[in-house]
């Protein structure tokens, strides 16, 4: 076991590329009930950057290792009296801090210590790219569709940012469940892909009117269920597009991400539509879900997600690997419109046990070579 490791650390709140530094830190030690994970791959989610900017739903203690969502790796050591897991076992570490709940170690480092109830064993046949994105977005898609809104077969579900990872997973899950989707995207280019994935209808805000199109598509009965991760004007339009008695769950605010103006961080709901059509607009946040779900329920939901991915009902879009040293490039890539693939930090030589070999992206690799399957 090495004594030290690389970690991507933010010294203070600020623009990620201004405050992040690559540091050498001692490899941590697992206590009772914990495991030391050698991280193989970990994504850069929009919310990870939000956390560093100090505009997320929780604020870690700074300096903080970045990455407060998830990773895949292998168990390098177990704390004393820790049962149920083996050294060398491949696991997803769910690093989403429960709110309220204890602090959780960031994933943008070579080794991290995690409580064993936050570890989900994963089969070797799942690629590192899929495994390291298993816990957050697929779980969110599953919870939104089946638990938060309980969308029934044949019902319409309206969703925004349908080309996002969550959006694509929602399309696949909806198809599996017989739910019909109306998918809002901001670029015309994205429409074909949405249709190819199985999205029933697509609305492009670049050149179409959201309200008019939803009315045309759903007819007089309208749409009673919606999920929105854009907020702002688009979120407001989603609430207006709902049929009377309809419900919209807001789970993201992508339109506000680069905003500092408090007035821009809103969803300007139309009071008449909310009051006279008795609609509900409410939030969903995975951190709070982890704060209320029992460990057994959380594990059950995560296991369900693992099965859906392993059985290829859900296919998690392939991420784009970056070595930790190229973090500024990876973060800029994460925020480029239409970037297409989720950036992932990858560790080690890129070689995996089962069948894959990748080299971290030099910017000129064929798409197929972005695979780094386990
Ligand atoms: N509440 C929760 O617990 C929870 C859990 C998971 C995810 N989330 C949220 O879900 C959202 C999606 O996450 P993800 O990881 O799936 O995203 P992602 O894969 O990184 O994709 C981002 C997508 O959002 C679109 N987008 C970005 N800014 C936009 C804007 N201003 N207006 C419209 N579309 C915009 C992008 O479109 P282009 O292709 O055109 O660039 C892209 O399709 C994020 O807000 C994330 O924070 C919330």
Automatic annotation (TrEMBL):
<keyword id="KW-0276">Fatty acid metabolism</keyword>
<keyword id="KW-0809">Transit peptide</keyword>
<dbReference type="InterPro" id="IPR036291">
    <property type="entry name" value="NAD(P)-bd_dom_sf"/>
</dbReference>
<keyword id="KW-0444">Lipid biosynthesis</keyword>
<keyword id="KW-0560">Oxidoreductase</keyword>
<dbReference type="InterPro" id="IPR013149">
    <property type="entry name" value="ADH-like_C"/>
</dbReference>
<dbReference type="Pfam" id="PF00107">
    <property type="entry name" value="ADH_zinc_N"/>
</dbReference>
<keyword id="KW-0521">NADP</keyword>
<dbReference type="InterPro" id="IPR011032">
    <property type="entry name" value="GroES-like_sf"/>
</dbReference>
<feature type="domain" description="Enoyl reductase (ER)">
    <location>
        <begin position="15"/>
        <end position="345"/>
    </location>
</feature>
<dbReference type="InterPro" id="IPR051034">
    <property type="entry name" value="Mito_Enoyl-ACP_Reductase"/>
</dbReference>
<keyword id="KW-0443">Lipid metabolism</keyword>
<comment type="similarity">
    <text>Belongs to the zinc-containing alcohol dehydrogenase family. Quinone oxidoreductase subfamily.</text>
</comment>
<dbReference type="Pfam" id="PF08240">
    <property type="entry name" value="ADH_N"/>
</dbReference>
<protein>
    <recommendedName>
        <fullName>enoyl-[acyl-carrier-protein] reductase</fullName>
        <ecNumber>1.3.1.104</ecNumber>
    </recommendedName>
</protein>
<dbReference type="InterPro" id="IPR020843">
    <property type="entry name" value="ER"/>
</dbReference>
<keyword id="KW-0275">Fatty acid biosynthesis</keyword>
<dbReference type="InterPro" id="IPR013154">
    <property type="entry name" value="ADH-like_N"/>
</dbReference>
């Amino acid at each position: 076991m090495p004594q030290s490791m690389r970690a991507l650390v933010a010294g203070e709140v600020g623009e990620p590329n201004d405050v992040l530094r690559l540091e050498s830190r001692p490899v941590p030690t697992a206590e009772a009930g914990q495991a030391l994970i050698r991280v193989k791959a970990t994504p850069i989610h929009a919310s990870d950057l939000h956390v560093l900017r100090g505009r997320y739903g929780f604020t870690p203690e700074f300096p903080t290792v970045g990455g407060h969502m998830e990773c895949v790796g292998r168990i390098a050591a177990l704390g004393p009296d820790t049962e149920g897991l083996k050294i060398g076992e491949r696991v997803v570490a769910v690093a989403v801090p429960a709110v309220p709940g204890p602090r959780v170690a960031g994933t943008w480092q070579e080794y991290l210590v995690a409580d064993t109830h936050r570890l989900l064993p994963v089969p070797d046949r799942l690629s590192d790219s899929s495994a390291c994105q298993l816990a957050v977005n697929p779980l969110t898609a599953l919870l939104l569709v089946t638990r938060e809104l309980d969308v029934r077969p044949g019902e319409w579900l309206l969703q925004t940012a349908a080309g996002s990872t969550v959006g694509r997973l929602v399309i696949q899950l909806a198809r599996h469940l017989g739910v019909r989707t109306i998918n809002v995207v901001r670029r015309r280019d994205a429409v074909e892909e949405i249709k190819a994935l199985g999205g029933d209808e697509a609305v492009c805000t670049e050149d179409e009117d959201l309200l008019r199109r939803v009315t045309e598509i759903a007819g007089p009965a309208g749409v009673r269920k919606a999920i929105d991760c854009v907020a702002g004007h688009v979120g407001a339009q989603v609430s207006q597009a709902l049929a009377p008695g309809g419900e919209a769950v807001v789970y993201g605010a992508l339109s506000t991400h680069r905003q500092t103006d408090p007035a821009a961080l809103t969803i300007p709901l139309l009071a008449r539509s909310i009051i006279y059509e008795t609609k509900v607009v409410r939030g969903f946040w995975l951190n709070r879900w982890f704060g209320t779900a029992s460990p057994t329920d959380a594990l059950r939901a995560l296991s369900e997600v693992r099965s859906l991915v392993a059985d290829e009902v859900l296919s998690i879009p392939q991420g784009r690997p970056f070595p930790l040293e190229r973090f500024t490039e990876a973060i800029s890539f994460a925020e480029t419109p239409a970037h297409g693939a989720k950036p992932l930090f990858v560790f080690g030589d890129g070689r995996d046990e089962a069948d894959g070999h990748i080299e971290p992206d030099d910017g000129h690799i064929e798409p197929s070579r972005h695979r780094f399957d386990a």
